[in-house]
Amino acid sequence: MTAKNGQHLEPAGTRRQGLADRHRNLYNADTCVYFYNPEKWQPEGGPYTAKAVHRYVDTLADNGIDTFLINANAQRAWYPSKVIPGILDGYVRGDRDYFRGHAVCQGITDPQETEAFVDRMIAFMNLYQDLLDAGVDWLAETHQACRRRGISPWVSIRMNDMHGFNNPEGSFFNLPLFKEERFRLKNSAYSPTMRNPDYRRGLNYECPEVRDLMFAQIREVVEDYDFEGLELDWLRNPLCCEPNASAETVAMMTDWFRGIRELTRRREEATGKPFPLGMRIPYNLNTLLSIGIDVRTLVREGIVDFLAPSFFWRTSWDMPHDDLKAELGNGVTIYGVIEDGANALPTYAPELDRTMEIRYISASRPILAANAAGKLVLGAEGIYWFNFYCTDQPRIPGLTSHYPNLRNIEPLQPLRGEPKHYVFGNQSGLLSHIPFETPPQVPAILEPGWRQAFRMPMCAEPAEAGLELVVQLVVQADEECRFVPVMFNGCWPKLENERTERLLFPCGPLTHHVPAHAGFNYTFPVSLVRDGWNEVVVENGGEQPLRLVCIELAVRRRE
Questions:
Q1: Beta bridge pairs of residue 502
Q2: For residue 304, which phi and psi values (nearest 5 degrees)?
C-alpha cells in the first residue's frame, strides 16, 4: 500500500504488531475530563482557557502515557461540531431552563434540589462556553497538546450514550433522533424485573437515520481533526440493534463498519501513517453478535486493529484475555482495561465517618498493580485506563487520582515483587451492565460440608522479595470462621486465620470494612502464586451456613 506522498504503508499484520509496540499505556478520558476539577487544571481562575487542556496532557505525559483517547461525544457532540447537534446548541449563558430537564436523569425530582442542580450545571457548562466564546475548540486543542508532548492522540466515539435516558424529550444531553420513539430500541430489556428498562432503549442502528448520523460524526473527527487513531466505544452503552439480530442485520452492520474502516484507510493514505481502528466492548462475543456486532468477522477481515474488552464502570478481575486471544488469534491487539471501580463491597473511612459503596482505585497502587498484573499475565498487550480521573470528582479528603500510579504499569516484569491487592468482583446491579459482564463469583452461601472454588488471574512473585500471600474471607460480622479451611492452588487446607476489621490495603482514607462485615485472614507462602489462573477453595466445616460476602487477596511484605 502506498500513500499519496509516496511513503509505503505497513501491511495489516505489521501494523498490528507495531500497534502493540508503540501503544502500551493508553488513557481514555471523557468529554468532561478538563472540566470536572477546574481548580486543579486552571488554579489561577478566571474564564476557562486552553491552558487547562495542555496542563492535563502534560500530567499524562509526565506519568508515562503514550496514547491519549479523548472522547468527543455523549449523544450530542461536546465539541463544536459542524455535522451533528452540539451539547450547547441554543444555550445562552445563564439560561436555567436549558438544564432543568436533565435533573430527573440524575435522580433529582425535589424542586429545591433541582434548582441547586441547575446552579451546578450552569457553573460547569459555562467553562465550555468560555472556550466557545474565545474560539477555542478543545477537541483540536487536545491533539495539539498531545503532539507537543509526544503522545499519540486518538479519538473515541460513544456509540449509544444513555445519560439522558430518563427524559428523552427534555434532557439537553439527547439528540433530536432520540426524542422520537421510532428510532429507539424496544426489546433490549429482556426481563420484566430488570432494573431501569428505559436504560436499554438506546438508539436503534437498524434505522438508516441513526447509522447516517453516527457515520457523519465519525467522518468529521477522522477527516477534519488531526488524530492518529479511532475507537468505537460500545460500552457507552452496549446497545446497537434489537437482540437476536438476523443474519441480514449483522451483515448490514458489518458493512457499515467496513465503511468506517475505509475512512481510516483513506486517512492513512493521506498521512502516510497507520490510523488504528478499534472498539471498547463487553467480553462476550456471542452477546455482541446478538445485537448485531460480529467481532469475529471484523477481526478476520482486518476491519479492527484493537479491542479493549471491559466492564461498564467497575473494573474486571477475571476477564478471560487468554480465551479471547486463543479465539481471535494474532490479527488483533487486545488491551487490558482498568476501570476506576474496585467492586461493590462497601468500605469505611473512620477519620471521615464515611462509607463508600465502591472504592475508587486510582488512589491505590496495590489494587492497580494487581489488576494490571492479572490482565498482562493472561496475554493483554498493554494497559488501557478508563475513568481514572473519577476519583477526583467527589472531592473527598485524602481520596485523589494519583497520576504517578500510571507509571510502569504496562510491563509485567517490573510489577513482580510489588505489593498487590487482588479483589473479586461481586454481585450487584450498581454500575454494572447485565448480561454483558462476566458473572461474579461472590457472594456465595456455603452450606455445612460444602466447598467452592474461586479463580483469579495473578502473576508469580520472586522468592527473594520477602512477600507473603494473604487470603481474606469477608463474611457477615456476626459469623465466625473457626471451621472454614481454605486451600490455595491445591495446598493442604489451612484452618488458622486472624479476624480483622481492616482492609488488606487502604484505598485513600478507606481503611476498614463496614460494621456489618468482618475479614478473616489466611496467610500462605507467596511461592504458591503462579502465572495465570490461581484457585482459592473455601470449605464450610461448621454446622451453620456460611455467607461469604467477598474474597480479597494481598501480596504484601511479610510481617
A1: 512
A2: -115, 145
Is residue 546 within 8 A of residue 452, CB to CB? The reply is: no
In SS3 terms, 54-70 reads as: HHHHHHHHHCCCCEEEE
d(C-alpha 340, C-alpha 289), whole Å: 27
**72 in Cβ contact with 221 (< 8 Å):** yes
Distance between CA 41 and CA 37 in Å, rounded? 7
Q: What is the pLDDT of residues 363-379, one digit of tens each?
A: 999 999 999 999 999 99
pLDDT at 221: 98
Cα 391 to Cα 314, 317, 388, 399, 495: the distances in Å are 13, 19, 7, 7, 38
pLDDT at 120 over 70: yes
Instruction: State the DSSP code for 391.
Output: G
Neighbouring-strand partners of residue 360: 341
pLDDT in tens, 329-343: 999 999 999 999 999
Q: What are the tens digits of pLDDT across the range 257-306?
A: 999 999 999 999 999 999 999 999 999 999 999 999 999 999 999 999 99
> Could you give the 3-state DSSP secondary structure of residue 205?
coil
CA 159, CA 526: separation in Å to the nearest integer? 44
pTM of the predicted structure, to 2 decimals? 0.96
Q: How many residues does the chain have?
A: 559
> Based on the number of CB atoms within 10 Å of its own CB, is 251 exposed (0-12), middle (13-18) or buried (19 or more)?
middle
Q: Exposed, middle or buried by CB within 10 Å (0-12, 13-18, 19+), for 544?
A: exposed
Q: Helix (H, G, I), strand (E, B), or coil: what is residue 522?
A: strand
Which residues lie below 8 Å from residue 318, measured CB to CB, with a gap of 6+?
424, 425, 438, 441, 455, 456, 457
| Type of residue numbered 293 | I
Please list the residues that pair with 63 across neighbouring strands: none
Q: If you write DSSP's letter for every residue of 445-459 in order, what string do you get?
A: EE-TT-EEEEEEEE-
| 247-271 and 208-223 helices, crossing angle to 10° | 20
Q: What is the mean pLDDT of residues 149-174?
A: 97
- CA 374 to chain centroid: 16
SS3 of 399-433: the string is CCCCHHHHCCCCCHHHHCCCCEEEECCECCCCCCC
- CATH code, residues 444-557: 2.60.120
